[in-house]
Automatic annotation (TrEMBL):
SMART domains: DEXDc, HELICc. InterPro entries: DEAD/DEAH_box_helicase_dom, Helicase_ATP-bd, Helicase_C-like, P-loop_NTPase, RNA_helicase_DEAD_Q_motif. PROSITE patterns: HELICASE_ATP_BIND_1, HELICASE_CTER, Q_MOTIF. This is RNA helicase.
């Protein structure tokens, strides 16, 4: 997407296309995660039914689940890459929150959240975000590196509580993500009672003619268009800080681009614009550069996903019962960390979960047929360690980092429609363990020549030998789990 492209036209074109596609009436259940039509063959060779399918989670949903499951800051030793646009304003970084000369009550809030020192992205972004005159910024860094905390701190610092009108506007792609951001803001501002925050999200209704007095508005684009453009509950022309959170998700979400653009057009020229995004896609950057004038651009280099620090094994099983025995043995010796078990179908996942629960094991089940609230509840419990094992399908194979996961078990190896190894999904699945340089363990259950062939394809693809492990060799598994 070229800079200065007309978003409205672009969004309208996309809308037309979507309507066209919808009118062909492609049913979700006729598609598999990667969007190809299904073949009618299930994982265990049984006739496939609707349970097989997993609608891929949306980028917004993934982002939310990611936020829910993460306990703390992601460790990252990678460098910050700065693409500076304005050579007249020097960039500097800080090593402590004191160095930012924040309002003391705000600083108290930061410390009360347990933040002792700024994260990598915060070190570089915050001095620029808080500097005067205000500078625009496009920041990209992976999930969990402290972006939200960075822009929320900047938002709160820019508020003038004496002015009783909205001065800061933050757009999030979904209701849930907006609420998450608002919660961070409320916590950080816990010692600044004079700062008022308002959510512009579904369910929030206000009478016509109301003039909002809150300083910060956090909302979804549709509702903010209603409040700021249609009903003029607040004056977009008085907004001095505009944050687009999850810029990548915004771009991927139909209609959000258009609405964000309508809002952006009504902001004053000198409004400080901050774009935060987790991904590095070109279109995200082009989109951002198209509307953020003269931005300071910073990126935290991403850690490459590799299998180097993950020990991979396979266990030979004769049948499903054997696979179950292997899982039970592994469960019995997982004393440290947590495990994720991937199944090919929802049906297998729920069968396994019922069987394990029936045998008194504490396991959680997360598959695509759960509503978002239920998924959140399951992940909440898993994050809190209430269950040590999470049984899931490909729905969680990508994009969710569960730091405390030390063991990934492929109850079923990932295969494509032709029943060949799906190496990309394999990488994503076992990449759930061994994150950020930590050691991880992956155990693959193989139940016959066909699966063994799939395993061989995976070995060949990655050029790495996967060693055999005896399911009865509990001591060995235990040792590996502790390493
Ligand atoms: N300086 C800090 N010190 C300690 N913990 C921090 C710090 N900054 C943020 N955190 C914590 O780290 C976690 C991740 O931070 P945050 O949500 O800001 O990351 P993010 O990059 O916005 O992630 P996402 O892309 O998923 O939104 C949160 O639990 C947050 O409370």
């Amino acid at each position: 997407m070229a800079a200065n492209i007309d978003w409205v036209t672009c969004a309208e074109e996309q809308e037309k296309l979507i309507t066209k596609v919808d009118s062909i009436s492609l049913n979700k259940t006729d598609r598999i995660p990667n969007g190809s039509p299904k073949t009618g063959i299930g994982a265990e060779g049984e006739p496939e039914d609707k349970n097989v399918d997993e609608a891929p989670i949306s980028p917004a949903e993934r982002s939310l689940l990611q936020k829910i499951i993460r306990k703390g800051l992601v460790e990252n030793k990678n460098d910050i890459e700065v693409q500076r646009k304005d050579p007249t304003s020097p960039l500097f970084s800080i090593k402590s929150f004191e160095a930012l000369h924040l309002d003391p009550q705000l600083l108290k809030g930061v410390y009360a959240m347990g933040f002792n020192a700024p994260s990598k992205i915060q070190e570089t972004a915050l001095p620029t975000l808080l500097a005067n005159p205000a500078q625009n910024m496009i920041a990209q860094s992976q999930s969990g590196t402290g972006k939200t905390a960075a822009f929320v701190l900047a938002m709160l610092s820019r508020v003038d509580p004496k002015k009783d009108y909205p001065q800061v506007l933050c757009l999030s792609p979904t209701y849930e993500l907006a609420i998450q951001t608002g919660e961070v803001a409320a916590k950080m501002a816990q010692f600044c009672p004079e700062i008022k925050i308002r959510f512009a999200v579904r369910g929030e209704e206000i009478p016509r003619g109301t003039k909002l007095k809150e300083h910060i508005i956090i909302g979804t684009p549709g509702k903010v268009v209603d409040w700021g453009v249609k009903y003029q509950f607040f004056d977009l022309g008085k907004v001095s800080v505009f944050v687009l959170d999850e810029a990548d998700v915004m771009i991927a979400t139909q209609g959000h681009q258009d609405q964000s653009f309508r809002i952006h057009k009504l902001l004053p020229r000198n409004c400080q614009i901050m774009f935060f995004s987790a991904t590095y896609e070109h279109d995200v950057m082009d989109f951002a550069e198209g509307i953020v004038s003269n931005p300071v651009i910073i990126r935290l280099k991403r850690e490459e996903e590799s299998l180097d620090n993950i020990k991979q094994y396979y266990v030979m099983c004769r049948n499903l019962e054997d696979k179950y025995t292997a899982i039970s043995n592994i469960y019995g010796v997982v004393t440290i960390g947590q495990a994720m078990i991937f199944c090919h179908t929802r049906k297998t996942a729920s069968w396994l979960s019922e069987k394990m629960s029936g045998d008194g094991h504490a396991v959680a089940l997360l598959s695509g047929d759960l509503a978002i609230e239920q998924r959140i509840a399951v992940l909440d419990r898993f994050r809190d360690g209430k269950e040590k094992v999470l049984i899931t399908t490909n729905v969680l194979a990508r994009g969710i980092d569960v730091e405390q996961v030390t063991i990934v078990v492929n109850f079923d190896l990932p295969v494509d429609l032709a029943r060949k190894a799906d190496c990309e999904t394999y990488l994503h699945r076992i990449g759930r363990t061994g994150r950020f340089g930590k050691a991880g363990l992956a155990i693959n259950l193989v139940d016959g020549p066909e699966t063994l062939a799939v395993l061989k394809q995976i070995e060949d693809h990655f050029g790495k030998k996967i060693n055999k492990l005896d399911a009865e060799d509990v001591d060995e598994i235990e040792k590996l789990g502790k390493e």
